[in-house]
Inverse folding.
């Protein structure tokens, strides 16, 4: 039980969170490039139409992927963007579900792993090397041991009467 009450993480955990953030940004950049540069937008629009989706959604999708990648690289709104970008990954899982699980057969293995990494990033926060933009997370290592909590509770309070 004592181990659960002390969550002192190594100073390198912020670097690890930043590394995951940069890896995810790389995935989004490559994903965007495949749609825009490799296949081209006409093919991407045709793919969306083939799936029963409107063509304008392809343009929204690639625009959103650029926003995600830029914000991940800069370290701003990381938890929020990792959450709200999950529907793109869930949609790809739905589209490719008939191919099975494994990546070699065109399955959903990669989107599942990618979504899990994004969920982990939500809990880790932006990590080191991010912007100091106020996003609700600190890039300092997290520490909340019992002695820290006791020390905080013993601070004198100022009362205004």
């Amino acid at each position: 039980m004592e181990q659960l009450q002390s969550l002192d993480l190594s100073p390198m955990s912020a670097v690890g969170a930043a590394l995951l953030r940069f890896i995810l940004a790389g995935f989004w950049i490559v994903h965007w490039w495949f749609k825009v540069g490799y296949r081209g937008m006409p093919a991407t629009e045709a793919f969306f139409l083939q799936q029963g989706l409107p063509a304008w959604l392809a343009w929204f999708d690639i625009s959103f992927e650029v926003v995600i990648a830029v914000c991940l690289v800069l370290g701003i709104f990381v938890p929020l963007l990792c959450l709200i970008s999950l529907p793109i990954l869930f949609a790809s899982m739905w589209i490719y579900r008939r191919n099975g699980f494994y990546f070699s057969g065109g399955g959903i293995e990669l989107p599942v792993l990618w979504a899990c990494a994004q969920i982990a990033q939500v809990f880790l926060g932006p990590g080191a090397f991010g912007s100091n933009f106020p996003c609700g997370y600190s890039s300092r290592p997290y520490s909340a041991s019992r002695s820290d909590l006791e020390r905080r509770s013993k601070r004198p309070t100022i009362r205004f009467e």
Residues 35 and 44 are 6 Å apart (CA to CA). The longest helix spans residues 12-38.
